[in-house]
Amino acid sequence: MAFRVGVLVSGRGTNLQALINASKKGVLSAEIAVVISNNPKAPALERAQKQQIPTKGIDPRAYPNTPAFEEAIVQELQNRKVDLVILAGFMKILSSTIIRAFPQRIINIHPALLPSFPGLHVQRKAIEHGVRFSGCTVHFVDESVDGGPIIIQAVVPLEPEDTEETLAARILKKEHQILPRAVQWIAKGRVKIEGRKVTIAGIRKRDEGSLTNPPLD
Ligand code: GRF
Predict the structure, then answer these.
(1) Residue located nearest, by CA, to atom 10 of ligand 1
(2) 119: CA distance to ligand 1 center in Å?
(3) Residue 30: beta bridge partners?
(4) Which of 12, 141, 147, 208 has the lowest CB atom count within 10 Å?
(5) Into how many domains does the chain fold?
């Protein structure tokens, strides 16, 4: 049976689009079984609808409390029989209600090199801190904020003229590469978690050296 994923989104959905594109190209062998948003007006939902992917807006304001809201999400994901939950720009922090329903079966894409810069507005924080590199991280979700075991990271340099927007755009391109790849590895059963360490079966050794920024002259 196909590996089934449920994608949680809140906004524009370019990472969702990257998953859709990868699956159309055949480089991702997973079926997007449902796209769920806490924001019923999220443009991401339209992206899914265009591809005839089932969508569901689950508005927290319609529920008495967070556990009830999250229980509605869990119900929907279970009805759709998803094997993996992907947070792709889902702007709400999950509580144990969802996390315990899908142990080690939820992943998130974060636009910084964790554990640096968890939370929000992280591109701005990276610029303000003056770091030379930032990037993005796909990680398993546990009950910490942006703190679960790391699957893959991609690095981008910061340039002196960077603004929050230019840096975010550079990072986003990498997000679109690494998120579908992480999902494919999981779908193919190549990912093993041991404590904080994640190993991917069958990865070739890298041969290039380390990066520096500015470059060594
Ligand atoms: C991305 O930068 C992602 O890393 C963060 O939220 C943003 C979502 O963008 N968690 P999009 O909705 O996928 O375009």
Answers:
(1) 89
(2) 12
(3) 3
(4) 208
(5) 1
